[in-house]
Amino acid sequence: MKKPIIINIIIFILTIVAVVWMMTDNTVLSLSARKLQVFRYFTVDSNILMGVSAVVMATAQIRVLNGKSKSVVAGLYVLKLVSTVAVTITMLVTVFYLGFIIPTGFLSLFVHSNFIMHLVVPVLGILVFILYEKTNSIKLKHIFSSLVPLVLYGIYYAASAYSHMENGVIENGYDWYRFFSLGASSVLLVYPFFAVFTLLLSYVLWKLNKTALPLSPPSTVTAEKG
């Protein structure tokens, strides 16, 4: 029971460290920004969501451990699924896409704060969710909840890109992930792809959460049905 609490607290602390680090780091890095500009990246937003869900889950787990609550409510497990999917997308897109299109090279995406947000937090988030937070309270229908962060960010990204487009060409710096490198109409391919990809990833993590063998004896923490 103590292991997931410790890991969740570590995730929360690392998230704060990484976000503050990026906001104040004057080093020129790939896919980084200063101050409030950091929030334009899905990497940062997904990590913050992960950090919030981790500290909320840790608080709930501590209450159960201390006998102040009987169980962790089902909604927190769903939130954990959503945040885990989000940071997993961040990691996979970085490894299998961004690493190959960034002029500064693959390894440049895994230095300083980006190392924490592109790799450490996603890996810890996946491990704690599928190994130590096993639950039957997440239903198949809940995998669709994982689309919420993607849809919200997709609206923001498209609005930012299209509002800085002239003669069908998006201004430099407003298509930072180069999703529209083939033209503005790329949205008709990119967005459906990510929607399907997100649902498949959510399904896989949901199944792993239900079936993965725990590394320690079963926890006494259970989820309320809801």
Outline the structure in words.
With 226 residues, this protein is mostly helical. It has six helices and four strands; from the N terminus they run ααβαααββαβ. It has helices at 2-24, 42-65, 74-101, 113-132, 147-162, 187-211; strands at residues 72-73, 165-166, 169-170, 223-224. The protein has a two-stranded parallel sheet. A two-stranded antiparallel sheet has the order 2-3. It starts with a helix and ends with a strand.
Indicate the low-confidence ranges by residue numbers.
216-220
Major β-sheet profile = 2 strands, parallel
Strand order of the largest sheet: 1-4
Order of helices and strands: HHEHHHEEHE
Helix content: 55-70%
Shape: globular
Round the Cα radius of gyration to an integer and report it: 18 Å
Mean pLDDT: 90
According to DSSP, the number of beta strands is 4
Tell me the structural class: mainly alpha
End-to-end C-alpha gap? 22 Å
Write the layout of secondary structure elements.
Elements: H1 2-24, H2 42-65, E1 72-73, H3 74-101, H4 113-132, H5 147-162, E2 165-166, E3 169-170, H6 187-211, E4 223-224
Helix pairs in contact: 1-2, 1-4, 2-3, 2-4, 3-4, 3-6, 4-6, 5-6
